[in-house]
Structure formats: C-alpha cells, structure tokens
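Tokenise the fold.
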Amino acid sequence: MRRWWRRVWAALRPWDPFRSIKAALQLLVIVSVLITTLLVTVAIHSATELRVITIFSIIACLLITQIVATNLTAPLREMTAVARAMAAGDYSRRVARVRRDEVGELAETFNRMAADLAAADRHRKELVANVSHELRTPIAALRAVLENVVDGVSAADPETMRLALQQTERLGKLVSQLLDLSRLDSGAVRLDAKRFEVWPYLSAVLKTASLGMGTSGKGSRTRQRADVPLHLDVSPLELMAYADGERLHQVVANLVDNAVKHSPPGGRVTVRARSGAAPGSLELDVMDEGPGIPEADRVRVFERFHRGSQPGRDGGTGLGLAIARWAVDLHGGRIEVAESPSGCRIHVTLPGGPAPTTQKRDHFPANSGRETPFSV
C-alpha cells in the first residue's frame, strides 16, 4: 500500500504547485484568468464601467503575482546572502528550506555544499595549526642543541651530534608523511598492484623497520627499542597476496612503528598474515602487548594528528595511522582496531586480485609447517 501511494505521490508532483515551480506558474496563470473573467462578468451584469474593472483586474493579478514571486525567489535571495557571507569567510550560515519544489532542493544542496566547505575550512585551519606545532618542536630542539654548541655550553661530540641528527630525522619523517598525505589527497598516487610472496616481503619490511628506528653510538643503524622483539607469523608459508608493494610497505611500517612505540619493555610485536576469502586477498594483524586503545579512541585513532586520550602516551606525529588508512583505502580494503585480550591489535583486510596461473616458491624454506616464527 505504501509503495502504491509513493508512486501516486511521485506521479502527482508535476501537478502539485507546492512541489513544482512549473505547476505553481500554471496555477498563477489560471487564477489570474479566473479573476479577470469574474470581474468582467461582474461588469457586464452591473453598471460598473469596463475600464474600472480592468484596473481592478490588473491590480489583483499584480498582487497575486507579487506574492507568488516573493515565495519563489525568497530562497534564492537567501542563498545570495549566504554566498556573500561565505565569500567573507563565514561558513556558519545556512539557507532555511521553506519550500518542497526545485528551489527547495537547490537550497538543500546549497546547505550541504556550505557544510562541506565549512568542514574543509576547519580541517585546513587544524592542519595548519597541527603542522606548525609539529614542525616547531624538532626545530626548537635542533636549534637548542646547535646554540649550545656555538656558545660553547656543550662540545660537538658524537653524543651531541646524535641528538641533533635525531631531531633532523624526526623533522624529515614528518615532512615525508605530510607529502604522502598530500599525494593521497590529490589522487596523485596510483596503485601498481602485483602478486607477491608474503613471507619474504614481510620479512624484508620488518628488517627495514628494525634498522630504521635509531642510531648507535658509532653512527651505524640500529634499533632504538632493542627490548621489543619483532615476530613474523605467516601461514601457510606459500601464502601469496595481490597488492601494491610500496603502499603496503607504508601500512606495515607505520603499524609496526606505532606498535613498538606503545610496547612495554620486553613486550613483543607480532605481524600475522593469513589468506582471505578471495584469491590474492590478505588478512593482516599487527599486535603489541601495550596498554591498548580505549574504545572511545578506536574510531578517531586513524584521524590525522590524533594521539589518543591516554596521558603519557608518546603518539608521535599522529600521521602514521592516517597514512596507513589512506593506503588501505586505495586498495579498497579495510583497517580497524580489532578486539584483543591484551594490548592492541590492528586488523587490515586487502581484497586481493586476479588469481595467478603459477605460484613461485623459490623464497620459502623446505619444510611446509603451518607456522614459522620469524624474529628480528
């Protein structure tokens, strides 16, 4: 019954003056003709002169036309005022939708556009403020170190230079992350998805991550958190996946870096890979033994510059998880904070792609066990 009524209601729209400007104009013409005819009939059956009736007919038609035109153009005038306010920087004003016709639909669309512009402007201001804050911190620390060296307060020994190098690396990492987000937002990043062997790929990613977390006293690359071992769990060993290697590297590296930061001393970070339902799909988990993420932060944790609500957590720049989310979205996959009995577990699902004709296994060990731990 409801479907039938909706169809009838939709079919009557072209004839409803409250939902169609065309119908409203047609009704205006009909009413004007009826008024004129009525006044002429009154003039014929009375002693009133025809010119007087004509004047009254013109006045009545003009009044009705003025009322209808005012109602029709009121949202347009309001949109003009709101557009001028938006041009001046005020995105808070909206058009009151007082009609159900095409002009009302235009007003509703205009309000949605104004809301999107307001959100974009708010995001731009937050981005400028957050980037300014993030850039100021390493620059200020680097300046302090160099000023101490120049003023003779501290010597230019390897330890002092290592502190300066750490701040420079932090600054470079932030700039690199911002460039990644800029390319992702502009759509300049295109996927070069290929099939690959998961075990050697993730093994190389974890080795790269372990070598890129700090510097030793002699200048060689080493891990900053040597007390947090990395563990790789791929099953089956011959697992194949279909994804963009460079983009997936960003996902895994950022998730591992985030997990290591929030791991307690002696805690272990585990990267687990399993096959998904579709050919070439991949189920990836990055787990740590840290304090975990509160439920209130699980939705916002992938937003830019969000560092969580727990006091004392060093969340870095707050861009790593945002980059991971964008890279997963490029694949058409899904990333989320999954339930875990302890610590934090980030679950990534990649949809996969075309099934291969053959599978190479040159990089796999001889045994065919279901699970082979790999620690760094």
Observations:
- Confidence is low (pLDDT under 50) at residues 213-223, 311-315, 358-373.
- DSSP finds eight helices and eight strands in the chain.
- The beta strands are 193-197, 230-234, 240-244, 269-275, 282-287, 334-338, 345-350, 374-375.
- The helical segments are 2-11, 21-44, 50-87, 102-150, 158-186, 198-211, 245-261, 320-330.
